[in-house]
Structures are given as structure tokens and as C-alpha cells.
Design a protein that fits this description.
The structure holds two protein chains of two kinds.
Chain A (H helix, E strand, L loop, with lengths): L4 H13 L3 H13 L4 H21 L5 H18 L13 E6 L7 H12 L3 E4 L6 H11 L3 E5 L7 H12 L7 E5 L5 H7 L3 E2 L3 H11 L2
Parallel strand pairs in A: 1-2, 1-3, 3-4, 4-5
Chain B lengths: L1 E6 L3 E5 L5 H8 L17 E3 L9 E3 L3 H4 L6 E3 L3 E3 L3 E4 L25 E6 L4 E6 L2 E7 L7 E7 L3 E8 L5 E8 L9 H8 L2 H25 L7 E8 L1 H7 L20 E4 L12 E4 L9 H10 L7 E6 L3 E8 L2 E8 L19 E7 L5 E5 L7 E2 L1 H13 L19 H4 L2 E4 L2 E5 L5 E3 H24 L9 E5 L8 H6 L11 E5 L1 H11 L1 H13 L1 E2 L8 H7 L4
Parallel strand pairs in B: 1-7, 11-14, 14-16, 17-26, 19-28, 20-22, 26-27
Antiparallel strand pairs in B: 1-2, 3-5, 4-6, 8-9, 9-10, 11-12, 12-13, 15-16, 17-18, 18-19, 20-21, 23-24, 24-25
Classes of the chains: A alpha/beta, B alpha/beta.
Pfam families (chain A): B12-binding, B12-binding_2
Keywords (chain A): Cobalt, Coiled coil, Metal-binding, Methyltransferase, Transferase
Protein name (chain A): Methyltransferase cognate corrinoid proteins
């Protein structure tokens, strides 16, 4: 007996939460074979699972390895579903330009934030690590981005975040973008001091932050 | 202006309205721990409300810490602004009882000092030679008064060792806290501080002042005239060596993380106003890389790891895990950002190794738990060695699962004496260690990050020499902190691979003992200056798969 769409969506979600790469792929295949909509499979199945994983991360149930394993499972499902997507992604998709600021090469935290924001439906443009302040601004301008997300693990490179904001002000485009900051030594106080639009303590909180400031 | 009085020292100073208690304390020269440099994150500067005479004199601002903590019996010194005159009673700000270890492994080094003294009976003078050159003379026969000093500058603590240059024997050693730590806890905050001229000056002058205190103290203890100390070796991590010799460390704090000096160099000690003979010479051992400093060079020398005909590893576990691997004397080195968890920071009840800190924790076979605190005082917190013991024991008894999560007593089978200690605090599971001290889930996560970083460093070093864990013959754990650790815990938490069991040796403060060898023979200076050029530096951030390996190393 074939399963309903809702049943399969739940199984997709569960496969991601349970970090089961193979199950996510095989369930995705079953879902497509039943003729259900691929886009829904991603957004209401796989991404739903990833969101649940994010909640578990926040509740300290899951840690970085689990979060990454969940994302592997999600991606294996997406690989199956994405060739079947007919609709293009919505036009009002928000764009996030993200990177580790100049002078710093620690990018694990940034990668997690990029991952969670992407799951939440943002288009991520990842500039990588050791990114000069001007490069953030140039890319954000070029793409007409919504958010510039800056990360650093080192106290020494924190001033680079303010430089990005200063450049935006100097070019009179500060209001065009929301700037969010994060990383080991960063705090809300620091974000306020440099005039950033927001700070989040971890990857999952960054999604709520982004939603709050660009809704 | 408002006045603030700090008790029990009874120091009163005037400050501008709105300044924080922490700022006032710094101005008054009073130590309040502030590892996060007053950003309201760490909560270590908390003061009990009862210790403030008039709480309404303060404007208490919100902080990250207060938002995440329901306990409002405390305020944070960094977030309490002075509105009216106030008296603050400080306790526990004395750390004189800190446990710092100064012993260390050393080899039988040959004695051939640069400083030599010769007595000339006819003129009744003693000539002083440095590197065969006469540099000064003294009246009378002072041949027996010939001393050198080694100072190991750690980020947190400093150890000075007075050595008789005629015999090579250490006469005494003393340790103190690094005074810079009050202003900025870790290496990076200090680099940030030194970025500004004023900050650099403060860090430099404070550390030199403390050198002089140390020198005066040990000279007085041994009845030695500081004018009879002719040479000083400064060992320590790269950043500390920069700050101690008034070199700006800014370049260390940004990619590509280059040091401003290379070490292997000499300066006149009087340049820094050190209380030594006016001709005294200062030697800096060579730096291996920006995050593998002269302390590790000294360690390489002290352990003779470069002369070994086997496979061995030297690891210094601290805020940065610095390590050197030797394959038949072929060396690779790396450093890894472990963070301050092992020093008790970022841990809910974390503290330094002072009175009342849990330093040992063991779950016995008869279902009892042994908790040992420093000086057997009632437990008030957890120090680094205690933290590793606690997490290690809880992992091996399945109270903490492989993924680092506290077990669920309903789902996982746990003996009662353990499951009853798993409690809920603020809605979150904690493991109770005593009435007031507990381990949180977040603490376990911090340990995972720290040990994951060190372990990943070890994995990359092994790979750099095409070795596997089982091929190692000896693993040496250096650092004063390392001495208090137990192999079992290091393996239980996975900081070290289990293949290292039975191969671990705690070698103590080899930064100091290696410094002594540098002091006693010029040959070792030349040898190390040449050797560091041949050491292969493994820069972890250049490896694409670092993240993958690190994440793998997070699990227990």
C-alpha cells in the first residue's frame, strides 16, 4: 500500500533528524515515485527535519557533529529531489553575503551559520575566510544583498567588523543592508557598540535573527 | 566624581560617575578576574550583592551572562556602573595559594657557560668574561657569586629559576601570576590590547615590574646579590616574549600570523631596566612559529626529542595546544586553538587551581565517588585537571554518551548512585558534584571543543610524519598544568588516542628546565637556532579537511 504524502514528508523529516543518509535518499526516491511535489519534499520534509535538528542543537541535545550529519542526510535527500523541481525558487528570496573577516582563518562557525541560513531558505553567498572589509561591501552591492554576516573567532580581528560598517556608512549605503555578527569573542554589547543590526550566539539563533531583521 | 572603597584592602579612589566597578578596580590596582575583558560574557567578575554596602548606588546593566543566568544574588563588576559613593567588599581575589608547578624533565647537559669569572690575586679583582670577552671587573674575590636566571613567561603564570652558573644547580624557583592576565586573559586579547600604544606600554611595564619583583624575591630568599646575576633567559610563548621585550605582537593576531621577532637573539638586560648586574645579557631562545614559541623550543631541548631514534610526541596542553612530533629526530610542530576551558574558563563552575577547586574525581568500583579538592577545602569550583577527570569518568561510566550528551536515566541504564546526581537546573540537565557545584551540558560541549582541537592537532602531526598513533614510543605531556593530569582521563575524553596508554609521561615545566640548559651552555643555543629552521610547521587552517577531522574528534 502506498503511503500518503504526509507520511512520507514525516519520514523524510525523521530521516534527517536521525542522521540517516541512506534512508533520506531512499525515502526521497519513494516520494518521487509516488508522484508527489519535489519542492514540498524539500521544504516540508527534509528542511523540516533540519529545523528540528537545529532545535535539538539549541536544546543542547545535539552538538556540531550531529548537526553536520543531519545536514549530510538532508543533502542526500535533496540530491534525489532537486532534479524534479519544476518551480524555480521564489523571486523574493533574501540574499546573505557571509564570510570570516580579514586576518582570521577559522571558519567552522561561519560554515554552520551558512548551513542553517541556507536551510531556512536564504540564498547564501559565501566569501570564505580572511575576507577584506571592502570585499563584503562590494559583493553585497553587486548582488543587492539583504544581509551581510560577519564572523570571527579571534579577538584581534574584531575591529574588521566595524570597518565593514564604516565603509557602508562612508558610501552612504548603510541603510541598504543589515549587518549581523557572530563568533567566539563577539557579544551583543560589541554588536551594539559597532552599530551592527544584530548578534546571534549560535548558528540556529542566527536564523531567528535574520528572520527578525529582514521580515 | 564618586568615590569607591575596596575592602579588605581599604583602598578608596575617585572615579567618574558611570564607570564600572571593574574599571575602578583596575584604576586602583586591585585584581578582579576578568577573563573576557569586561564584555559581560564570562561571569567571573561576579560579586555577591551582600558584599556591596549600598546596592542602589550602582546601575546594573544587562549582560549576556545575566540574561542566561537566573541567579540574581550576584552582580558583575564589569556591568555595574557607579552612580553614588559605594563600598565593595572583595573576597577570593588573592591567588597567592595558586598551585603552580615548577619541576620539569631535564637531560644531563654539559656545562660551558658564557659568563666566566676569574680572580686576579695581585690586583685583588675578579674579572668577568662574557663569551671570552672581558666585560667588567669587581673588587675582591667574587668568583663564587656567579648567577643566571631563567624566567618562563606563561600567559597565566610566570616561573623564575635562579641558577648557580659555577655549578649549574638551581638554587631556588618562584612562581607568580602574570600581571597582564588581570587586563586581558588570553593571548589574543593581549595582542588586541597591545595594538594601542597605551596598552602595549601597560603590558610591557607591568611584566617587567613583575620580573623585578621575582628577581628581588628569589635573590633575597637565597641571600644573593642581584648584581651577581649576569645572564637571563626568557622562555615563554611567542606573544609573551614579544610583550616582555617591548616588541609589538600585532602581526601574530592576524593571518598569516607572523611573529615580529625570531628569537635566538641577545639584548642588554639594562635596556628593560631589569634588577640584574648592569652588564647582564638577555637571551631569547629561537621561536619555532608564531604559535609555537621559545617555551616549546626549550621543551624540545629539555626532552632531547630531536635526538631520539624513535617516534615521540611532545604536547603542551593549555589555551593553545602546542605540539612537536619526532620521527627519528625529524620534527614537525603545530599549535591548535583549544580555548580556555582547560584553565577553568567558559565553564560554569570553572576556576583556576586554587583552594577549593575540584582537582580529582573518580568513580570507584564500589559505587562511591571520590572528589578531591585543593587543600581539601569545601568544593567551590572545578579546575582544569578536575574537569578532565570528571568528564573522563562520566564518559567511561556512560553518564555522558559518545556524542557528549548527558544520558537520559529513563532511557539509558545507569546505576542509581549516578543517575540520582543528574538533576535539572534552570530546565537543563546537570551533573551534581557537590551541594553547590555542578557540571552543565554546556561545560561538556566546551570540553569537547577543547579536546577536539588538541586531538585534531595530534592527528595532523601524526599524518605529517606518516605515522599512526600505535607507532609512537613515547608521548610527553609538558606544562605545569599537565603535571596534575591523569593519563586515564586524557584517554577517556579522547584528547589522546587510546593507543597512547602506557606511553604517556608527564614531563612538567620543560620551558624552565630547557631554559636552564640554554643558560648553562652556548652550544645548545646554536644547536636550537639551527634546528628550528628545519622544523616542519603544520598550519592547520591550510588544510581543507581540518574541519572534517576536528568534527570527528569532537565525539568521545
Amino acid at each position: 500500500m502506498s503511503k500518503t504524502k504526509e507520511e512520507l514528508l514525516e519520514e523524510l523529516s525523521d530521516a534527517v533528524v536521525d542522521m540517516d543518509e541512506e534512508l533520506a535518499a531512499s525515502t526521497a526516491k519513494e516520494y518521487i515515485d509516488e508522484g508527489y511535489d519535489a519542492y514540498d519534499g524539500i521544504s516540508e520534509g527534509l528542511v523540516d527535519g533540519m529545523n528540528k535538528a537545529g532545535e535539538l542543537f539549541e536544546e543542547e541535545e545535539y552538538f556540531i557533529p550531529e548537526l553536520l550529519l543531519c545536514s549530510d542526510a538532508m543533502n542526500s535527500g535533496i540530491e534525489v529531489l532537486s532534479p524534479h523541481i519544476e518551480r524555480s525558487r521564489s523571486k523574493d528570496e533574501k540574499i546573505v553575503v557571509i564570510g570570516v573577516v580579514q586576518g582570521d582563518t577559522h571558519d567552522i562557525g561561519k560554515n554552520l551559520v551558512a548551513l542553517m541560513l541556507e536551510v531556512a531558505g536564504y540564498k547564501i553567498v559565501d566569501l570564505g575566510k580572511d575576507v577584506p572589509p571592502q570585499a563584503f561591501v562590494d559583493k553585497a552591492k553587486e548582488l543587492n544583498a539583504d544581509i551581510i554576516a560577519l564572523s570571527t573567532l579571534m579577538t584581534t580581528t574584531m575591529p574588521r567588523m566595524k570597518e565593514v560598517i564604516d565603509i557602508l556608512k562612508k558610501e552612504n549605503i548603510r541603510e541598504n543592508f543589515k549587518v549581523i555578527v557572530g563568533g567566539g569573542p563577539i557579544s551583543q554589547k560589541f554588536a551594539d557598540e559597532i552599530g551592527a543590526d544584530g548578534y546571534s550566539v549560535n548558528a540556529t539563533a542566527s536564523v531567528r535573527l535574520a528572520q527578525r531583521i529582514v521580515s | 566624581m564618586k568615590s569607591i572603597t575596596f575592602k579588605p584592602d581599604n583602598i578608596t579612589i575617585q572615579v567618574k560617575k558611570g564607570q564600572t566597578i571593574l574599571e575602578a578596580a583596575r584604576k586602583a590596582g586591585i585584581a578582579i578576574e576578568s577573563p573576557c575583558n569586561g564584555s559581560g560574557v564570562c561571569g567571573k567578575c561576579r560579586i555577591n550583592r551582600e558584599q556591596i554596602d549600598n546596592i542602589d548606588a550602582l546601575l546594573i546593566k544587562k549582560s549576556v551572562f545575566s540574561e542566561n543566568n537566573d541567579d540574581d544574588s550576584y552582580i558583575l563588576a564589569c556591568n555595574a556602573c557607579i552612580n553614588e559613593d559605594v563600598i565593595v567588599e572583595l573576597t577570593n581575589n588573592k591567588e597567592s595559594d595558586l598551585k603552580i608547578l615548577s619541576k620539569g624533565k631535564i637531560f644531563a647537559f654539559e656545562k660551558k657557560t658564557l659568563v666566566k669569572k676569574e680572580y686576579y690575586e695581585k690586583e685583588d679583582i675578579t674579572k668577568i668574561y662574557y663569551n671570552e670577552k672581558e666585560i667588567a671587573f669587581e673588587k675582591g674575590n667574587t668568583k663564587n657569586e656567579n648567577y643566571g636566571i631563567v624566567i618562563d613567561i606563561g600567559t597565566t603564570t610566570m616561573v623564575a629559576s635562579l641558577v648557580d652558573l659555577n655549578t649549574g644547580k638551581e638554587l631556588t624557583s618562584e612562581s607568580v601570576l602574570n600581571p597582564q592576565a588581570i587586563h586581558a586573559q588570553d593571548v589574543l586579547s593581549r595582542i588586541t590590547m597591545a595594538h594601542e600604544q597605551k596598552g602595549m606600554e601597560l603590558l610591557y611595564t607591568e611584566v617587567v615590574k613583575e620580573f623585578n619583583n621575582l628577581i628581588d624575591m628569589i635573590a633575597k630568599n637565597k641571600g644573593v646579590d642581584p648584581n651577581g646575576i649576569y645572564e637571563i633567559i626568557l622562555s615563554g610563548n611567542t606573544c609573551m616574549i614579544h610583550l616582555a621585550t617591548n616588541k609589538n605582537p600585532t602581526s601574530l593576531g592576524e593571518y598569516p600570523y607572523e611573529p615580529a621577532i625570531q628569537g635566538g637573539s641577545y639584548e642588554a638586560a639594562k635596556l628593560h631596566g631589569l634588577h640584574l648586574a648592569k652588564e647582564a645579557v638577555l637571551y631569547l631562545p629561537p621561536i619555532i612559529s608564531s604559535y609555537v614559541g621559545p617555551d616549546i623550543t626549550s621543551g624540545v631541548l629539555a626532552t632531547q626529542i630531536y635526538k631520539r631514534k624513535d617516534n615521540s610526541l611532545l604536547v603542551d596542553i593549555g589555551t593553545n595546544g602546542e605540539m612537536v612530533i619526532s620521527k627519528n629526530g625529524d620534527l614537525s610542530a603545530t599549535s591548535t586553538a583549544a580555548g580556555p576551558a582547560f584553565e577553568g574558563m567558559n565553564i560554569e563552575f570553572g576556576m583556576r587551581a586554587a583552594k577549593g577547586a575540584i582537582e580529582m574525581f573518580e568513580i570507584e568500583d564500589d559505587d562511591t565517588i571520590t572528589v578531591k579538592t585543593i587543600e581539601n577545602a569545601p568544593p567551590v569550583g572545578i579546575c582544569g585537571s578536575g574537569l578532565m577527570d570528571i568528564v573522563g569518568e562520566l564518559v567511561s561510566h556512560k553518564v555522558i554518551t559518545k556524542s557528549g550528551k548527558f544520558a537520559n536515566p529513563k532511557r539509558n541504564e545507569l546505576p542509581d548512585f549516578l543517575s540520582e546526581r543528574l538533576e535539572k537546573k534552570n530546565g537543563k540537565t546537570v551533573f551534581k558534584l557537590s551541594e553547590d557545584v555542578y557540571l552543565t551540558q554546556k561545560d561538556v560541549r566546551q570540553v569537547q571543543l577543547a579536546k577536539g582541537a588538541v586531538r585534531a592537532g595530534i592527528e595532523f602531526l601524526l599524518k605529517s610524519q606518516e605515522l599512526t598513533a600505535d607507532k609512537l614510543d613515547e608521548v610527553m605531556i609538558a606544562g605545569s598544568f599537565g603535571y596534575h593530569l591523569r593519563t586515564k582521563s586524557l584517554i577517556n575524553i579522547g584528547l589522546l588516542p587510546k593507543e597512547f596508554e602506557d606511553k604517556v609521561d608527564f614531563v612538567g615545566n620543560t620551558s624552565k628546565t630547557g631554559g636552564q640548559a640554554f643558560l648553562m651552555n652556548k652550544k645548545y643555543r646554536n644547536e636550537m637556532e639551527e634546528l628550528v629552521k628545519t622544523i616542519n610547521i603544520v598550519e592547520l587552517s591550510n588544510y581543507d579537511n581540518f574541519e572534517e577531522v576536528f568534527v570527528k574528534c569532537l565525539n568521545f
